[in-house]
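Protein in question kept in full:
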Amino acid sequence: MTGALRDDHGMTDDEIAAIQNRYGKGPNLAADLAVLTARWRGDEPDLRMLLIQRNNKPFRGFWALPGGFVDLGEDLEPAVRRELHEETGIQDLGTTPLEQIGAFGHPSRDPRSRVISIVFLAWVQENSLPDPKGGDDAAAATFVRVRDGVVTDDAGHALSLAFDHDHVLAKVWERIRSQAAGSSTPLLLLPERFSSEQVIALYEALTGPCDPQALLSWLRNNGWIRPEGPAWTRSAGPPAHAPFPWSAPRLSDSST
């Protein structure tokens, strides 16, 4: 996968040469994690993505997905979970499955050496997570707003992303949309008990306008939600897939 590359990484040629003399020119393997969650403002979801602010060159002060280099003898998922803990303090994502989104390996994506990153995605209920706190080589860690694959601060200002992570997040968002359009996965972002309005608003935030009654019937008929008094609750079990009862939005509409 390719994307626009940054040349404002803040490293001199001598600094790059010193790193390459010590560690080599690669290729090196990294693992990064996109953690998607939602903060609820009444019935409206405020979609959030976990980012860290880099404390070291290259791209000191820029934002990035949590992640880092895979150690020798370490598998990919344990590596990305370790990096998540080191950089954000979040050690446990519970039973949330990690989905491997893809590999990003443009030769110039990291000025230090040839780095190939494997990117994972996790959908997590916000209440199940501790507040993130920057650690290791992360100066800060926080959940920032995400809309159509673009991350901003709470005032709506776009954040400067390190490496090719703007391109990575665009691809992650494509996967989020395609996964939402025909599965129960978005239910992972809901509170334990939720309203019909919350379900509808969440799916529309992820996939675009939908038929509210058809959506609720589809979720209930597949056994993914069940009534609990005046509210709903998510049925036990991992996320599952089934065709939408209406035409899904064209995913290319959100491509960058």
Remarks:
- The chain has a mean pLDDT of 89.
